[in-house]
Amino acid sequence: MLLKPDIKLKRVTDITPEILEKYNINSLILDVDNTLSTHHGQILTDGLEDWLKLMKENGIRLTVLSNSKEKRVKPFAEKIGLPYISLGLKPLPFGYIRALKMSDSKRKNTAIVGDQIFTDVLGGNIVGVKTLLLTPIKLENTAGFKFKRKIEAFVYKLYKITETEEN
Length: 167
Hints:
Helix content is about 40%, strand content about 15%. By secondary structure, it is an alpha/beta fold.
């Protein structure tokens, strides 16, 4: 089931050390757009700074992986003090593999955190990391994204994916 996430939560700040421990996760690969900030935004979501501090205090390795260009990703990653990979080509495995190497993490102990089934979840499942799907912070309004979100809605129904579900 390449399109089904292991865990479905509302926001990144809903990820707790307890959930990560339950799944033996010690490393997170983080999407940016609609996961940590709005699409192309530079403003941190409410509670993100505290959440990043909590994750670091609990020894969780954090790496940013985005399909966006460096001029978008670099300033955001620097603002939150994390290593990053831009133009990640998700769902292809290349960016995920680079992120695993960058964080010196094993696939079995790593999860991708993102808001899209056809990039974050599909790519994570292809590579063999855990997948943690979040509700987008703000829905995009371009025709391409609207179409993709309609297909995702079908996948949600097909796999009975619901909020705060650990599959």
